[in-house]
Specification:
The structure holds two protein chains of two kinds. Chain A has a two-stranded antiparallel ribbon with strand order 1-2. Chain A has one domain. In chain A, helix 1 packs antiparallel against helix 7. Chain A has 13 helices and two strands; from the N terminus they run ααααααβααααβααα. Chain A has helices at about 1-25, 25-55, 60-75, 85-105, 110-130, 130-135, 150-170, 175-185, 185-190, 195-220, 230-245, 250-270, 275-305, and strands at about 140, 225. By secondary structure, chain A is mainly alpha-helical. Chain B is an alpha/beta fold. In chain B, a hairpin with a 2-residue loop joins strand 13 (about 380-385) and strand 14 (about 390-400). In chain B, helix 3 (about 85-95) runs parallel beside helix 4 and helix 9 (about 235-245) packs parallel to helix 10 (about 260-270). The radius of gyration of chain B is 22 Å and the shape is globular. Chain B starts with a helix and ends with a strand. In chain B, about 55% of the residues are buried. The chains are: A mainly alpha, B alpha/beta.
Amino acid sequence: MRAWAARGGMLAAGVVLFFLLPHVVSDFRLFELARVGQYFIAMLGLYVLTTYTGQVSIGHGAFMAIGGYTTGVLVYHRHWEDWRTLPVAALVAGVAGLLFGLPALRLRGLYLALATFAMAVSVPAIIKKWESLTGGSTGLLFATFHTNRWYYDVTWAAAGVLVVLAWIVLASPVGRTWRALRDSEVAAASFGIWVPLYKTLAFGISAAYAGLAGGILVILSLGANPNSFPIQLSIYLLVGVAIGAFASIPGILVGAAFVEYVQVYAPKWVSDSPGIPTFAFGAALVLAAFAATAVSALTIRWQTGLKRGPAKETS
Amino acid sequence: MRSIAIVLGALALASAAAGATRLDPGVSSNEVKIGGTVPLSGVAAAYASVGRGADAYFKYWNETHGGVKGRKIDYEYLDDQYDPSKTVDQTRRLIQEDHVFAVFNSLGTEQNLAVRALLNGAKVPQIFVASGGLTFGRDYKQYPYTIGFLPSYVAEGTIYGKYLRAQKKKATIAVLYQDDDYGKEMLRGLEKGLAGRGRIVAKQSYDPTASDVNSQVAALKSSKANTFLIAATPKYAIQAYIQVKKLGWKPQIVVNQVASASNVMKIVQSSVGSLANDSVSIGFVKDPTDPRFKKDKVVALYRTVLRKYQPSADPSDVYNVYAMAVAYEFVNALAHAGNPPTRDGLMRAVTHMNDKKNPFLYPGVVVHTTPQSRFPITQAQLIRWRAGHWNAFGRLVSAR
């Protein structure tokens, strides 16, 4: 139960911060924070996939695009209220993730990463071709927009719900099965676990998170445009999760903030020559790879010290 | 939750209203802050000079003239990577965090469309949009705070259509165009200008993020057209020329203005040699590599300004001249926007322009607008590539 107490504490801190920040930072900063939230949600999905099932994806930008365009189409063609489209965006991207998860079963490690990368490259092109629905290169423009506070509220309320959902899933038998799979597929199968089901399920859930984040991206961007889902987006998401050292939800938060603010402030503070943000991401990734080992070693020592005994999973 | 948000929103509005009794946002006693987005990185980074050149001109103007009516112009141009969602973020930053007076010279059709409702909703002028999208000049009733600058792509296409109709009675035309509003408007203009004479025998579109256009050019060549219109951005236009050369096709080439900067054409010439000769395009700003302007005082000034304020810029890059032309016109408009300048005053000024003396434009090109006619530049010069530079031919033509 200790873990749940820690999670409760984290959630309470999050809620306090959520209500406190709007009184501290400027109106525009709230919008920036909504962007951080958008990355946070997508990375949360990626984090579950990589950390708990050991599957790597450099293609989550594609699931964001699928979710984003679901929101775009529903708002533009069907005149839905924008935030109401978010569950549908998650659902559509989730189904896409399940479908992608099937062929992904045959791939692992680097090969899976390459397959997801191919998807990140192809999805924006497919979206553009489907012009009657997606508006082609012009995209779908929304006529209405909200206050920055609204964007902040909606994004972080969604993020809060999704964090709790992730905790529930990870603590459930599904989560335990994932961990068993990650450690050894053969051992898991010998316990009677149907491996394909759980691996595709992980892809589906992870893609649903990305899809919802994509819906938020489109709402924040006042419309859907294929240029908003470049290949860099997928890479940035992975870098963000890596910066969080594949470790914890606060780690993801740092990663999400890093992705948003480096893109904005690296050109401003370092140099506005092209490629500076990308360089910063690359450098951060290398550093994170070195730091990750050290940090995770320290974290484990700290956690085990805290529990006054060997670490064990709670249920 | 919602009611709290509403109360907070109302408070914010009330405090904003109380603070805005004297000066419009971005205006102080000694400064006017404006901003815009340009792609400094990403697929369209070639257009970065549209921001950098304007910045150089404002710095020059501030130093030599002390700004406009004692207020220096502070121009903040931010990178949007040509991604409309980034344009939205950066434009929000400009109007909500940096509190700019006006958004000026932001580049790209989709990029400007993405923020048009936002800016008009906030009554922030969206001035001299760097796009030939027809909508920026046409739809002023719905978006009164928006105005473009360069001739529309439809107008440019029409010029080529009329030219081909007059020059070659039996022009069979192949068109390469970008698969978006810009490319399609150019194509529409071409059809309009041809008015039934001259045939478009093949058209191929490419995706604005595609890696190359080789297969499109090959398909166009197989149509055996004798004229080839390249309605593409610089990278793809260069590729198209190279592919035409490789395939041994020898059409009359017409290349659109967004890819016909001299520095781009120099790359073309070094790759395809004499095939570049007799290419036709339009221009409306003075080309620094045109020998006609070798002794032109303004072109000399342009070089000095660029060297001093943007030392790493390429002076043969004609987008720098475009940038200075648009910056010059902004200075002009700001001088007529009231003292202290107001946003509404600025909109009044940019919809009542009649400037025959913008020195960066081709001689004779007039900047003219009325509240009902919001295309500042409606004239252009046909130009032909020979001996390593563009040569003007014929009179100014109407581009509307």
